[in-house]
Give the backbone structure.
Amino acid sequence: MSLRKFALCLALAVLAVAASLIHAQAGDLAVIQQALNNDAIIKMHSAGLSDDIIVSTINSQPGTYTVDVNNLIALKKAGISDQVLNAMIARNNTPPPPVRPPYRGDGTQTTADADPNDPNSPHDPGIYMYAKGPNGMELTMLESSVYSSGKTGGMFSSVLTYGIAKVKMKAVIQGAHSNIQTSDSGVLFYFYFEENGKSFGGSTTPNEFNLLRFDVKSNSREAQTGSANAFGATTGTDVNAATGFAYKKIRPGIYQVTPAGRLTPGEYCFLPAGGQAGTAAASRLFAFGITGQ
């Protein structure tokens, strides 16, 4: 045989071996890409893959393993290590990740099984506090507190000045502390309005509310809602008690509200901006408290 023919035969033989190896590797890869089972683990072990690689594959790929006594014995006889067997058993006992309910066109979930702590899940209309809790971030609906009386301040000064000095009108809530408390000073809020845009006494955006810090007494909380003197009355909260906030529209009827800064420990509320103590427009507010760390 001439040297040229020998070289040609050698080249053809090399190509045939390479094609065979590529086919075998493609077959092994197909096994790995499919849902793993006992046979796939044995094939990976027989191919010389290390236990670390096999365990990593078990943890990252979907698979169903038969790990009763007889199959565990068979796997052990096939050379599968305890490390790999433990990974197979653990993976078999791991529940599948929760399936998030489908979304409607407006982005809201359609079933009652939606995560109640997910701001994107459907919620009843109201103001919700989004803060760190024992199990992570939690959404808590703020209670609607009704105040039925307005307390006046500065009456004596008004009398002495023949009505020139202003009389302060205040909303008073019984109890020094709200039932809703958090230690998360970086708390956020979500406003959920009804789809027709009418909730919270006709309000349609967070811009129609004030975020106020209460003046806490021994058994009550107070917030100024207006003032009056001989020349007339005005509605509006105490500038020193007001806490600014920014808001953005997540989608129709849902707004995220972020306080202007981290809230210091104290008692707070969201109060309708146009109200005054004793009027229907401001007959309720939404209170919460920030505790110390």
